[in-house]
Design goal:
Elements lengths: L1 H20 L4 H27 E4 L2 E4 L2 H18 L1 H16 L5 H12 L2 H13 L3 H21 L6 H14 L1 H4 L5 H22 L16 H14 L1
Antiparallel strand pairs: 1-2
Length: 238
């Protein structure tokens, strides 16, 4: 139920964003893009630091430094090799041409990354699937609603298609919650969250036109903490 609420929130926000977009000049849209990027960078750094820094007995230490670096390096090697960014763009442009739709690619990719990357999507989906508790996903839906409306005011209707990504991603975790829950340890979720936060910082910098990182090509980095945790789990079984 939580994932369906999230999907509906994104679709409704897209509708409101399209109405809102009509009254905005190009200058205002560019400024909205900049402040959205700025906000995304600040919030993502906050999420990263909350997982990265550990305070014990008044001493500050860092967590999973090497895992984050290795995840990004391995992720970008895989992502650039298969060029996920180009494949996603070809898919979006293909849908545009076939159904004679307005530009979709930027909104679809941006929405997919923002709405699917993060601990709330994982934890919320697990809670929904195991305990029937949609609270976390409802809170996420409210946040996604605001974000989707702002994204749509700049990128257009493509943001609506990111709801499909949310449905598949969160829905799969919810349906498979009982099976994957034992593997979703706190360490694993923290690792995914740390890497995800770095990807969101990169996306925020792109929105601000500070960088031109192909964030989609970094997506495989999210799988590295999973592989690492599976390796640790198998090692303990031996």
């Amino acid at each position: 139920m939580g994932t369906l609420i999230n999907v509906i929130a994104i679709l409704l926000a897209t509708a409101f964003g399209l109405i809102f977009k009509k009254g905005l000049s190009e200058k205002i849209q560019n400024n909205i893009m900049f402040v959205l990027g700025l906000g995304l960078v600040v919030v993502s750094i906050g999420w990263f630091m909350s997982d990265f820094l550990i305070i014990e007995d008044g001493i500050i230490r860092t967590s999973k430094d090497l895992l984050v670096i290795l995840s990004l390096v391995i992720g970008v090697i895989i992502g650039e090799t298969i060029d996920i960014d180009a494949r996603l763009n070809r898919f979006a442009y293909g849908v545009e041409s076939k159904f004679k739709l307005p530009p979709l690619a930027k909104g679809f990719i941006a929405g997919t990354l923002i709405f699917c990357v993060g601990a709330m999507a994982i934890i919320g989906s697990l809670n929904d699937g195991i305990h029937g508790d949609s609270t976390t996903l409802i809170v996420k839906s409210a946040l996604d609603f605001v974000t989707a409306m702002v994204l749509t005011s700049v990128f257009g209707v493509g943001v609506a298609f990111s709801a499909i990504s949310v449905l598949i991603y969160q829905g799969s975790i919810t349906l498979l919650a009982s099976a994957v829950a034992p593997l979703m340890t706190e360490d694993l979720i923290t690792g995914i969250s740390l890497v995800g936060s770095v990807l969101l910082v990169a996306m925020g910098l792109n929105f601000m036109n500070v960088t031109k990182v192909k964030v989609a090509n970094l997506l495989p980095a999210l799988a590295v903490p999973v592989v690492y945790q599976l390796g640790v789990w198998l090692w303990h079984l031996l």
